[in-house]
Amino acid sequence: MKSQNIDTDEINILQIVSTIWHRKWLILAIIITSIFISIYCYYSIPNTYRSNINIQVNLDSKGGMSSILSRLPLGSNKANNYGSEIELIKSRKLLSEVVDDLNLNESQLNIKLKNKEPEPLLPYIKKINTYLNELFSSLATKKNKYESLSKKILITKKLQSMLSVSYSDSGKFLTIKIESYRPELSTRIVNSIAKIYMQHKEKQIKEQQKNTLNWLSSELASIKKDIMRSENELIPLSGNEDSPDIRVMLKLKEDELNSLSSKKNELEQKIEIDEIHYKNLEGVTEPTIILESPLIKSTPQIEKAQTSISDAENKLLELSLKYGPKHPSYIIAKENLYNEKSILKRQVRNLLNTYISIFEIETKKIKSLEKLLSKNKIELQKLRQSENIYLKKLREIETYRSLYNMTLKRFQEAQSINNLKQEIATVLDYSLVEDAQKTSRQNLISTMIVFLGFFISIFISLFLGIIDQGIHSKDDLNNLTEAPILTNLPKVKNRKKIGQSYNFIQDKIYLESIYRLRTRLRTIDKNKKMLSITSAIPKEGKSTTVLHLAKALSELEKVLVIDIDFRRHSITKDLNISNEKSGLSDIILNKAKFSDAIIRNSKEGFDILGVGTALDYPNALLSSDMMGKILMHLRNHYDRIIIETPPVQLFSDAEVVSKLVDATLLIVKADYTKKKDLTATIEQLEQININILGIILNQTVFTSKEKHYDKYIQNSKA
């Protein structure tokens, strides 16, 4: 087998050209057909004329309304764009008005101006048109989906198909184009579309201005209601003659809360200090020590008692100097001092009890102040919440008033603009009949059809070449195998036998190809006396090739032809050998001798050994030692032995026999044998080391160059 390790990315140009050339007549037929179609289209496609008109559109202005609506957070304005303008122009509503404006009917739209047909082609074009009309009428089995629609809607839909609208962002304008079969009709339609569009825009501006005024008026009323509602909600918080303003109340409450907090703090500090002094006096009974405490403040009674004690002590001291302790004066003075001290002690105790009561009262007063502070804090918090509401309402009222003033200003502005003529679209220049452009594309379409036909034919040829698995030429064989191609036999008509005798082919090219095969066989190796001829599949021309090769070799050598195709025994039948005649099978089974089985064909010059008795399973006989001995015996008596075997892909007989001969020839029928069958056959034979001497390409179609041989021969005879 030829190596298949070829770079798949490499394109074989010669193979592509060969594939295309092999189907040249198909390509030519498709190209000629496309030429006829292009000619028909050139004279059948009507001329079309295009008129256009430019409309400058300023959607940013909106007729002066953008200065109002763009500054308001709410409103009836919706985002507009050029896409919506294009859809408006294409809408059935606008185009139906165009139909009414121009009083269009279907016949006006269908009047066509075609290229004038040449006189020789006129009858043919008419016949084709008639045939196509009949064909389309027969195919139109379904009801037209527009049949139930009114004529006006049909005309409107026709206009939609004729219309195209584009937008230029640089110039801010729309371009409307109409294509029809007549220039004046295109001009009328495009001008009418522009006029109706302008009317729509004027109506839209008026409606928009009206809607804007209505909306602004309703917004003013709504804002006014909001202001009144907010003011009513603010009245309870603003104060009056009976109740102060919320801010005054908040100030008073804050002052009161600060005063209570200050009192509470002072009282707490005092109680804390008094409590410390009181703890220092716990367990103290001496009045003088108690009076030294900051907690106890002297009173006139205590000061009087202290003076009396001082006087009593002085008097007692004087008496102690004069009298003894038992003197009555001294005793009286001492009792008097004791009484004065008792009085002071009692007064100090009473004063201390009084301060204890005051301490307890102050403690209770702190608790009362705490409750009062908590209450005032809650009230202050409520007042602050009310103040927040109050301030919020003030801001709300201020916002509403600002919005009201702005809306009122816009309302007044809109009223002023409403009296002015606003334009958001301007027709730059209406279309004229002279400006209509002929847009017919007959030349382009006709040329494209021819080129398309050419490319389609090339594509079909390449596609058929890709899917085609047949073998057509020597190039196909060279791409499949390295085995040499010994010859290629031309395809001839007469290969049948006539009467009881086999009719050998007399075609000079065929015979020359057979002689070329004979020469190559004798040149390659004369020692290869025994040859088997086989094929991949049946009906590839083995028998015919074997007989003609044997006849050609018999002119120079002694030749024996052996037919071992026990199933079809083609050679036996072609040479009209009786089925009862002994043959190869009889010799192998020792039922006949060589002299009984071999037929001497003196007329053609070679001998024949037929199959003999038919066998269902001849493989065992062919594989026997007897078969080898028979062939060895025959080799000694003939210069050349040619054996026809069954197809390799069907039976193993060919493989068995090929092992016994010197070389094997493969017959390949052009345009019949598949590549996969030949590849499989060669692989099978190579696996068992069969010597494939070469390939014979049978029934090929010769090129004109190869056919020059026949002409050369005839001229030489003349």
Automatic annotation (TrEMBL):
<dbReference type="InterPro" id="IPR025669">
    <property type="entry name" value="AAA_dom"/>
</dbReference>
<keyword id="KW-0547">Nucleotide-binding</keyword>
<protein>
    <recommendedName>
        <fullName>non-specific protein-tyrosine kinase</fullName>
        <ecNumber>2.7.10.2</ecNumber>
    </recommendedName>
</protein>
<keyword id="KW-1003">Cell membrane</keyword>
<feature type="coiled-coil region">
    <location>
        <begin position="250"/>
        <end position="386"/>
    </location>
</feature>
<dbReference type="Pfam" id="PF02706">
    <property type="entry name" value="Wzz"/>
</dbReference>
<keyword id="KW-0808">Transferase</keyword>
<dbReference type="GO" id="GO:0005886">
    <property type="term" value="C:plasma membrane"/>
</dbReference>
<keyword id="KW-0829">Tyrosine-protein kinase</keyword>
<dbReference type="InterPro" id="IPR005702">
    <property type="entry name" value="Wzc-like_C"/>
</dbReference>
<keyword id="KW-0997">Cell inner membrane</keyword>
<feature type="transmembrane region" description="Helical">
    <location>
        <begin position="25"/>
        <end position="45"/>
    </location>
</feature>
<keyword id="KW-0418">Kinase</keyword>
<keyword id="KW-0067">ATP-binding</keyword>
<dbReference type="GO" id="GO:0005524">
    <property type="term" value="F:ATP binding"/>
</dbReference>
<keyword id="KW-1133">Transmembrane helix</keyword>
<dbReference type="InterPro" id="IPR050445">
    <property type="entry name" value="Bact_polysacc_biosynth/exp"/>
</dbReference>
<feature type="domain" description="Polysaccharide chain length determinant N-terminal">
    <location>
        <begin position="9"/>
        <end position="102"/>
    </location>
</feature>
<keyword id="KW-0175">Coiled coil</keyword>
<keyword id="KW-0812">Transmembrane</keyword>
<comment type="similarity">
    <text>Belongs to the CpsD/CapB family.</text>
</comment>
<dbReference type="InterPro" id="IPR003856">
    <property type="entry name" value="LPS_length_determ_N"/>
</dbReference>
<keyword id="KW-0472">Membrane</keyword>
<feature type="domain" description="AAA">
    <location>
        <begin position="541"/>
        <end position="651"/>
    </location>
</feature>
<dbReference type="Pfam" id="PF13614">
    <property type="entry name" value="AAA_31"/>
</dbReference>
<feature type="transmembrane region" description="Helical">
    <location>
        <begin position="444"/>
        <end position="467"/>
    </location>
</feature>
<comment type="similarity">
    <text>Belongs to the etk/wzc family.</text>
</comment>
<dbReference type="InterPro" id="IPR027417">
    <property type="entry name" value="P-loop_NTPase"/>
</dbReference>
<dbReference type="GO" id="GO:0004715">
    <property type="term" value="F:non-membrane spanning protein tyrosine kinase activity"/>
</dbReference>
